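User: quick one
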Amino acid sequence: MNAMNMPLGGQETTTGPLVKMKGITKEYHGVPAVKNVDFTLERGEVHALLGENGAGKSTLTKMLSGVTNPTHGVIEVDGKEVRIGSPSDARDLGIVMVYQETSLVSSMSVGQNLFLGDEARFNKLRDLYIQAQVILHSLNFDVNPWDQVDTLGAAQKQMVEIARAVRQNARVIIFDEPTATLTPEERAHFFSLIGRLRNQGVTIVFITHALEEALNVSDRITILRDGEIVTSDVTSNFTQDSIVRDMVGRDLTEELYGHVEKREARQAKGEVLSVENLSLGSIVRNNSFTIYGGQITGFFGLVGSGRTEAAKIVSGVLKRNFFHGGTVRLGGKPVRYRVPLQAMRDGIVYVTEDRKIEGFFETMSIGENLHIADLAASPEKGSVIRMSEAKELFKVWKEKLSIRAMSAEAKVLELSGGNQQKVVIAKSLLQKPKLIIFDEPTRGVDVGAIAEIHKIINELADSGMAVVVISSYLPEIQHLSDRILVNRGGRVVAEFPRGATDDEIMFASVH
Amino acid sequence: MSVKSSIGRLDQEKVVLVISAAMFLIFAMTLNGFATIPNILSLFQSVSIIGALGLGMAIVIIGRGIDLSMIAVMVMPVAWSFMQIADGMPVSMAFGFAILIAVGLGLLNGWLVAFVEVPSIFATLATGMILFGGMQYIKVQSDIIQLPPVLEWFNTVMTRTTLGVPNSMVFLLVLSAIVWLFLRFTRQGRFIYAIGDNPMAARTTGLPVRQIVVLQYVLAAVLALFVGNVLAAMVDSANTRLFYSNMMYDVILVVVLGGVGLGGGKGRISNVLAGTALIGILVNGMTILDVSYMVQNLVKASVLLLALVVDSLINPRDEQTSQQGDI
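Assistant: Done. Structure below.
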C-alpha cells in the first residue's frame, strides 16, 4: 500500500514556515469574503482560527484545502509557490480538512473508509483490516475497523476522519469546529490526540467558537474580522477579554462571558403545558415536565439527550409513539398534533436549531419570508394577497428585532448568522405564540448578536409568554433560565432553580 | 450586495432569450420565407400547446414535483367526452364527467405524492398509464376521434385570428397571464414557491404542505384537460396516439430550458415563455430547412444541454454560494 512507503511529513528537513499565504483575496460576485490576507503556518504547531460568523475563517481554510480558489494571492508550501486547485491537490501537499459534517461513507466499514480511494488493485479485505487496525492502534483509537460507520457516534466518526488524515501522511490537518458535537470526556481525548499529533510534527489548524479551547490548547491564535486578519500571535499574549475585543471590535466581555447576571428568577404565571410519559422510539423515553407562563425554562443536556425531539413532538413537527406515547396537555386540555400548523393555531411555536434546513426559504427575500409566515398565521386574510405587505412587515420587524439588512429584497441567505436567526425568530413571532421554544437560539451566531437575541428572549418572557430555551452551552442556560431542567437519556432527570452551579448541573446531565 | 448581484447576474432565462434572438436573426437573414408574417404566426401556433402544458408543468416543478401524467389527461378524457357526445350524451354532461376524471386524477397524484410519499416521477408515470389504459379499455379504442359536429364552432374559433394574432396564440398568452396572477398574487401561489424552496421549513412555518401539493397536481390536471380541448379544436380531432409521442419531453424541455429549476422554488412564467419561444424558432427554422425529425431531436437535446451548462458556468453552485451564510 502506497501509504506505507511514503516519507512521513514531519520528518522533512526544510526550514522556514510550512505554509505561507500571501496577499490572499477571495471574492464572491465581487463581494470580498477575505481581503488581502497574509497567513503563515509553522511546522508542528496548533493554530486556532477565531472570528465571528462571516469573518472569513471557513473561506480561508477552504482555499488552503482546495475547496475554493483564491481570486488573488499566492500560496507557498515549503517555500515553493503552489497551486491548490482541488482537495486532491491539497492532499498531495499533505493538507487535509476534517469537516463538521463528516465526509465518511456511512454504509462502509471503518477500514474501507480509511483506505477509500487508495485501495490496492486487488483489494484484499483481510490485509486492509490489519493495516487499519495498525493505524487505529497507533493513535490509541477505540474503534473496530470492521464496524460500519453509521453505527458510530459523532466522536468515533471524527476519530476515523483523523485516522484517515494520518494515514494519508497529512502534514496539516484542518478542523472546522471539531468539538461542537463532543461530550466533555471526548473533548479531553480529542485534545490529547491533537497534542500527540503535534509532537509527531503535524500542524493542526482548528476553527472554534469556544474561546477557552483556543486558549488552553493552541500555540498560536489568529483572529479574523470582516475578512481581514486582526491579529496573529502566540497564544500566551491573549486573554479571553482581548480575544472578544479583537473579534467584535468592541467590549462585550462583561455582558456575555462575564458572570451570570444577578437577577431574581421570574415568578411562574400559571401552568401552560404539561407533558407526561412522552415517548418516541428510543430517543424520548417517558419524559415528563411542565412549562409555566411568564418565565424562561431552560433545557440543558448533552447532544442526543432527546431535548430537541421532545420539543418537536410538543410543537407538532414530530409525532410521538401512537401507543403508550404519553400525554401532552395544553392549558389542561390533551392535544396531539400531526403537523406544526395545528400546534401553531394553538399557540405553540418551535424555533429550529438548524435554520438552514428548516428555518427559512433561501430563494426568497427577507420580506417574502416574513410574508409567508404571516400568511400562514392569518387564514382570515383570504386568497388574494398584497405584495406590498412584505415590505411593511420587513419595516416593522427590522425595527423590533434590529435586523441589520439593506432592504426587504435582500436574500436571507446573504445575511450573517445572527441576522438570519432574527429573521427566523420574527417568522415565529408572527404566528402569535403563547409558548415559544427556542432550540439552540445562538448556534452559529456572532458574538455581537448573541446579546441581542438574549435580550429578545428575555423580553418575551417579561411580556408573559411561556418561553423554553434548549441549549448545550451551560453559561447560556444559566444566564437566561428562571428554572433549569436537565435532560439525559431521553428524559428530564433533574430540575434546578436559577443560580445553580456548573458542577451541579453538569453532574446531573452526565451521571 | 443583493441589488448588485441580482442586476449584474445573467441567468438562464436571459441566456435563452439571447440565443432565441440570435437564432431568429440568423434564420431571418438566411432563410427564405422565415421572416414572413404567416410563418411567424404558424411558428407560435405550433408551440402554443407545448407552452400551455408547460405552464401546468411549471406549477408542479416549482413545487418540487413533476407530472408525467399530463399527456394522458390531455388526450383521454377529451377523446372519451367526444365519443359520448357523438353517442348522444348532452355536451355539458360529457364535459362535466371529463372534468371529474381530470380532477380525480389530480387528487390521486397529489394524494400519492403528499400522503403516501411516492416520488412524483413514479407516481405520475403510473397514474398516467392507468388513466390511458383504463379509458382505452372502457371506451376509447380508436386513435383519432373526430370533433363532434355540435362543437364545430370551437374549431372555427381556434383557427381564427384576433387583431391579426392567431387565437391559439391568444389562448397561450391569456393562460400565461392567469397562471402568472395565480402564482404571484394568491396565497396558494406563494405557498407553492415556499414548499418548493424548502418543504421542511414550509412545514415548520405552519403551511398546509400536503394540501398545497395536492392542489398543484389538480391544477396541472385541469389545465391539461383544458389544453386537450383546445388542441382538439385546433386540429378538429382528438389524437390519443400523442400519449406515445415524445410530447411529454418537449414540455419538460421548454420548462427547464427557460430556467425553471428542477430543484423547486425557482422559476417564473416568463421562463416558460422564453423556453417556448426558443423551441418554436428552432423547430420552425429546421422545418423550413427540411432537417429530418431525427436531427431536430438531436438539436433540441443539444440546446437543452447547452443552456444547462451555460447556466451552471455563469451561476456556479459550489458549496460556497449554496451556503453564503457561513463564509
